[in-house]
Amino acid sequence: MLRALVLAAALAATLGTIEGDARAQATDAPAAAAPAGTAPPASTGVARPNAADPVLEKRLQAVTKELRCMVCQNESIADSHAPLAVDMRNEIRDQLKSGMSEQQVIAFMVERYGNFVRFRPPLDWTTIGLWFGPALLMILGFGALLSQMRQRRNLSTMRAVPELSAAERAALASLADGDGPRSDRTQNDKTGNR
Fold this sequence. Notes:
Shape: rod-shaped
Oligomer: single chain
Radius of gyration: 38 Å
Helix content: 55-70%
Low-confidence stretches: 17-44
Mean pLDDT: 75
Strand content: under 5%
Order of helices and strands: HHHHHHH
């Protein structure tokens, strides 16, 4: 019974993948059938193909490499395939076509999505922790490491066994040889009394 369910799920997943590929080809077909100067509609979820203007595409790439995809983790909108990134690329392309500069487009995106959309946020009072936090944490960690090493060194010097005097060494040697006096405890141990 379990095997039948697993096989049915695998078959359904395979059919879903085949149907998804067929849908993707169907949505690509109108774009391929469109005249060379037109772009597919924005609702297809596919970024428009490179424009006839290579300078515009170069500017688009420069801007989109600096902006973060709001859906993906640490991926620029130039590299992302998420629908939001596609929409953002199309919006940037339209703004650049309308004559906006790269800085104006970035300012528009920051106004719309906040400083998080930038891979390199500006240095101001709200982002100072992003810029100097890692260095501060490294300094604090290094200080804690040095403090720990000093404590260990001081502890090891406090636990060091002091040097024995000549009289103490002689007494120790006589005890080791069995010539020295025995304590009451040693005698009690031999007799079994405690």
